[in-house]
Amino acid sequence: MSVTIKDIAKSLGVSYSTVSRALNNKPGVSKKTRERIIEQAKKMGYQPNDMARGLVKKRTKTIGVVIPDIANSFFGEVTQGIIDTANENGYTILLCISNWDFDIEKKHLKTLLEKRVDGIILKPAKDDVDEKYFSKINVPFILLEGWQGDKSCSYVKVDNEKGGYMATKYLIERGYQNIAYAGGKKEAHSNLERVEGYIKALKEHGRKVERELIRHNDFTVSGGYKLAEELLNSHNKVDAIFAGNDVIALGILHYAATHGYKVPDQLGVIGFDDIFYAEFHQIQLTTIRQPKYLLGKNTLELLLQEIRDDEDRVNKAMILEPKLIVRKTTR
Amino acid sequence: MSVTIKDIAKSLGVSYSTVSRALNNKPGVSKKTRERIIEQAKKMGYQPNDMARGLVKKRTKTIGVVIPDIANSFFGEVTQGIIDTANENGYTILLCISNWDFDIEKKHLKTLLEKRVDGIILKPAKDDVDEKYFSKINVPFILLEGWQGDKSCSYVKVDNEKGGYMATKYLIERGYQNIAYAGGKKEAHSNLERVEGYIKALKEHGRKVERELIRHNDFTVSGGYKLAEELLNSHNKVDAIFAGNDVIALGILHYAATHGYKVPDQLGVIGFDDIFYAEFHQIQLTTIRQPKYLLGKNTLELLLQEIRDDEDRVNKAMILEPKLIVRKTTR
DNA sequence: CTGAAAGCGCTAACAC
DNA sequence: GTGTTAGCGCTTTCAG
Questions:
Q1: What is B5-48's CATH topology?
Q2: Nearest partner of B153 among B122, B199, B178, B125, judged by Cα
């Protein structure tokens, strides 16, 4: 089939261990034979077989990434950060998509382990996984957007509570009176934390926390649309909405525009994430930025560190700061 | 280290080929021993080593994908189609990002070959690559958004000329008189083909093709903004612009909105791609849709076919139909 | 400086 | 049915 180290050895009349040494820049080969070997390898179109190498060296220079969705621009940017950083460090990424399906995720994890990846980055499809699930992962791994409560593994995330706090505080400062929260999946840890920040800000400013102003639907445009409808037609005089993410915010803006609510005077809207499209002229969404690329980059770097430390690694948490981006949907 | 087939064999007092057979559902093992083996494997937490298996079977069930950018939502959706389909067929994806850098791309290709992927999907960082470059790729591979001119390999793409034709024809039919083209990278094949469609439609309708109405900049928002500025301030009375892609169109809309051009009456705008955000209420871009998910799906399926046919495979081209999506930026 | 040989974990052909 | 054995292509002692 393809040319091997043995073929080169034979054609040059040397032993194949010498070829191996020469090709890997290892000491113990005379300059002359080394050059001959390298040249011959090139001439014969030799391509090292990484599987064979991995089998003996017990590492693959490959990292597995399991995320729910890559078409989603949030994960797109995070993944870009992961892959760029991996490449810079000589690692290649096996990318798996769970489509938010826990069973698919499990299968992917199994495959990655069988492929003997050097480490794994995982954004779980559901948030309420128990430690046993993670304990099966017998390689270094990091939870993407992990949560504080879990001490059984390392994670990287943005300070969601702080983000929620910043968003709500800003709305209060801009003079909005009845601030609602329009979230996505209720149980999602990121969601819960943002709600906490929201509540904290309200309390700190002497506002009453009204449970019916905290609503949940989907992390989608239509989810936002429905929530806006609910909130704006309730008896409370909602004049500002903090959306659980930017896509929800867009749904809210849609509802507002089609139902005569003037943004930002009559209704203030603030999002979360700062997706690429938030800054478009036609949208100009005020939002809390997550450093998405950095999130990916740091996650990979933390993982690399764990791979290096190997046995004596300890669980770490890395928490990134969110940032308020003021645009035109708040007054 | 981790438990192997031999460990299981030893613990059960059978030969390890029997274990292999049992675990792989191969005939030639009594039901009883098979069950014992499977149970024991589970108990010991056995994880097959895919490298060892790949080494002997000479296939990895892994496919390499090299694209320029994954944060970009076009590639994001295409990649989602690729990965979903790969997973359905038991393949895993090694994803590499070239960042539009030809040298990085070359390095990725080399790595993928060394990892002995079963096939490769490639969207080249530049369009003017010669056949020799491709001839080095000694596994089945498909060019994503390939071009007609090249017969040295298989490719999948959307009929760009037809899309350009449809867009321009529609603008003509809606009564626009001076239709300009605002493109991205000039040399890009997809761009050239769209221009051809544009020209064809103009000619077919007895319109004059004016070279100064065909302009190029970047496939970005600011590229579109600049082109709009140029075109709308030229002596020609441009009343419609066909943008090389949706992002350019958004830049054009931005310029129009900030400089008092009424869309769609005073200025018609049509894009290309139909990115997720094109249909937002605040944008409502008329555009030519590329079936992005399908593009990825079909590319992978074609690749699988080539992997199956192996030696007696022939180069194929698959060309998908674009579709006109009418929204609010054309009258 | 170079060669011989063991072995990484597994599959598959060949015996029994 | 089950065991034995020969590799897959490479790295890495251990001799010389």
A1: 434 Repressor (Amino-terminal Domain) (1.10.260)
A2: B122
CB pair distance less than 8 Å for B83 and A97: yes
Q: Do B83 and A96 touch (CB under 8 A)?
A: yes
Are B219 and B187 in contact by the 8 Å Cβ rule? The answer is no
Fold of B160-290: Rossmann fold (3.40.50)
- CB contact A68 to B (< 8 Å): no
Which 92-111 residues of chain B touch chain A by CB within 8 A?
A: 92-97, 99, 104, 108, 110-111
Taking only residues 264 to 283 of chain A, the set having a beta carbon closer than 8 angstroms to any beta carbon of chain B reads 276-277, 280-283
B259–chain A Cβ distance below 8 A for any pair: no
Answer whether B60-159+292-321 and B160-290 agree in fold. Answer: yes
Query: Cα–chain-centroid distance for residue B23?
Result: 38
Angle at A255 between CA A249 and CA A257, to 5 degrees: 100
Q: How many residues comprise chain A?
A: 331
CA neighbours closer than 13 Å in the CB half-sphere of residue B69: 10
Rounded distance, CA A11 to CA B232, Å? 68
Helix extents (H) in chain B: 5-12, 16-23, 31-44, 50-57, 73-88, 102-114, 131-135, 160-173, 189-204, 221-232, 246-258, 292-309
Q: Which residue has the tokens 């790969």?
A: B86
> Cα dist. A212→A166, A208, A209 in Å?
21, 12, 9
CATH class as words, domain B60-159+292-321: alpha beta
Digits of tens for pLDDT over chain A (331 positions)?
689 999 999 898 888 899 999 999 888 888 888 999 999 999 999 999 999 999 999 999 999 999 999 998 899 999 999 999 999 999 999 999 999 999 999 999 999 999 999 999 999 998 877 778 888 899 999 999 876 565 678 999 999 999 999 999 999 999 999 999 999 988 888 899 999 999 999 999 999 999 999 999 988 899 999 999 999 998 779 999 999 999 999 999 999 999 999 999 999 999 999 998 898 888 999 999 999 999 999 999 999 999 998 777 888 889 999 999 999 999 9
Which residue, among A3, A44, A51, A294, would best test binding to B if mutated, counting the most B CBs under 10 Å from its CB?
A51
